[in-house]
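Subject: for your reference before the review

Hello V.,

The reviewers asked for a structural picture of the protein, and I figured it would be easier to keep everything in one thread rather than splitting it across files. Below is the amino acid sequence we used in the manuscript, unchanged from the supplementary table.
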Amino acid sequence: MDSSGRVVLPTAFEDADIDHLALLIADMLERLMAHNDRIPLLPESLTRFHSRSAPGISVLEYLRRIVRFTKVEKSILLLTLHYVDQMCARTPLFTLSSLTAHRFIIASIAVASKGLCDTFCTNSLYARVGGISLTELNVLEREFLLGIDWRLTCTREVLQEYYINLVRTDSAARFTIPESESFSTSEDSDADMDSGDAESRSPSPLQMQAQAQGVRPPSTGTILPDTATLTPQVPQGPTIEQNMAFAALQESLGRTRSHQGQNHPGPS
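And here is what came back from the structure prediction:
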């Protein structure tokens, strides 16, 4: 720890403790989810990743469960953030929320591990660890690959930038990286921000998403700013399947609220 009580992390993400990475990633995703949960859900926004209700496990505990039972690699955890940016940039109506995050995470880790690692688990194990059926994971896997246009790879430098910025933006300021080394991979972007040129850079997926929905984005954007090479898909109207799923979701939420009201009656 340093003099302020913060945990000093190694410069390279490969040397970091995997639980520290899980803490940092969960912090970022939880903030993104809290923002997106305020955006009204529309029928055309429904995807295969939507569940009828938010899972009863936090993102952090979900990541820890995956780490424990699948021995996922550190780079694969960080790639989840890259895939969120990819998906949001290509599909503006997609939002990572409390209804989509868990399915997105398990699909991301399963696909990336199988595509990029020498050793990986079977879909049956990923499904059990993720708390979904094998059939559902297979469907999510195909949907995920289509959503990111099958672009699974990412450079080590990009992952390092995610790592550095996760430490920078940690909401609890629990961690630090030695000042002399921490930002050596992103000096140009630091110089842009210090000189006031940050506004001229491409908006992050979170900012684009918020603008499209008419919602002001929070001051902490997504991690990686460069989305200029991505081609967003043109938003389409809701399909019959989406309308039916939306109606079923609304009915499910209505039953949940009614049940909660019966269990917690108001004052007489």
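For the response letter, the relevant points are probably these. Strands lie at 7-8, 175-176. The CA atoms of residues 87 and 148 lie 6 Å apart.

Happy to draft the paragraph if you're swamped.

O.
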